[in-house]
């Protein structure tokens, strides 16, 4: 399902955080949004997910304005994994993943075999089936993040939003999670994720969108977008952008004394 953002402005009274953003994400693609802290990345995701009301502009999922849909219908189209999500105390992995089925429940539709199948499929897809009866708070950071992803996948939405899914993960677990994101897109879902690591964005996303000051300042394939000039514009750092051996993905290497050389 295609996701389209048109002239979207959102924020707080007198302080727009997202300012006139346009973005189109085709089905089955991965878009990584990068930029400095406070540039509007998370507010953009929250507005797309109907958690932050826009001041103007539209968000369309499959051609329909998500803000014109009911909350339940929108939740059938878009799922968001926020930063640092909090789980109920002592919840098991299976219990957490079942929360992903909440939008499919209702007065005349209770838990079903379809729900159970969706939960199992999500656990299998994320490699967490063997952890189903374990408590979430007893797992490693990488394991917990895969469980949260399982909950999002169990929602069975065609569009998945991930806000810093690799935050606080070590390199091995980050690679594991981002590889899983690629598998999610390969299965036909549309994925938009916020990342801080430019190298990871360049390697795992089909398109990189750079934001600064609430606006999109660059977007396109990573090899075209990630440049030394962009790094300096976004982060105020002098850097060299090299090609990684093997796949040629851009790698950002800050220069010695980079910060002192700027400004």
TrEMBL record:
Keywords for the protein's UniProt record, in alphabetical order: ATP-binding, Cell membrane, Ion transport, Iron, Iron transport, Membrane, Nucleotide-binding, Transport
Mode of membrane association: Peripheral membrane protein
Record flagged with keyword ATP-binding: yes
GO molecular function terms attached to this record: ATP binding
Predominant place of localization: membrane
Top-level taxon: Bacteria
Record localization: Cell membrane
InterPro entries named in the record: AAA+_ATPase, ABC_transporter-like_ATP-bd, P-loop_NTPase, Siderophore_ABC-ATPase
Residues in ABC transporter domain copies: 3-238
PANTHER family in the cross-refs: IRON(3+)-HYDROXAMATE IMPORT ATP-BINDING PROTEIN FHUC (PTHR42771:SF2)
Protein name in UniProt: ABC transporter ATP-binding protein
């Amino acid at each position: 399902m295609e996701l389209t953002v048109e002239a979207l402005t959102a924020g707080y009274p007198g302080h727009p955080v997202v300012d006139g953003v346009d973005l189109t994400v085709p089905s089955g693609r991965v878009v990584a949004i990068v930029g400095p802290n406070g540039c509007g990345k998370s507010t953009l995701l929250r507005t797309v997910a109907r958690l932050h009301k826009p001041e103007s502009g539209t968000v369309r999922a499959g051609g329909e304005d998500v803000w014109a849909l009911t909350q339940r219908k929108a939740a059938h189209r878009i799922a968001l994994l926020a930063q640092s999500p909090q789980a109920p105390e002592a919840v098991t992995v299976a219990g957490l993943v079942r929360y992903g089925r909440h939008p499919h429940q209702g007065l005349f539709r209770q838990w079903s075999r379809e729900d159970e199948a969706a939960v199992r499929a999500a656990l299998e897809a994320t490699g967490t089936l063997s952890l189903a009866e374990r408590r979430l708070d007893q797992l490693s950071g990488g394991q917990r993040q895969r469980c949260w992803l399982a909950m999002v996948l169990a929602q069975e939405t065609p569009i998945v939003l991930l806000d810093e899914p690799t935050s606080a993960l070590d390199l091995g677990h980050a690679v594991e999670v981002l590889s899983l994101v690629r598998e999610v897109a390969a299965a036909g879902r549309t994925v938009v994720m916020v990342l801080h690591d430019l190298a990871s964005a360049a390697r795992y996303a089909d398109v990189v969108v750079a934001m600064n000051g609430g606006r999109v300042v660059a977007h396109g394939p990573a090899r075209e977008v990630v440049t030394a000039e962009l790094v300096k514009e976004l982060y105020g750092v002098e850097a060299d952008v090299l090609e990684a051996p093997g796949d040629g993905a851009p790698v950002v290497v800050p220069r010695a004394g980079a910060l002192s050389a700027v400004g």
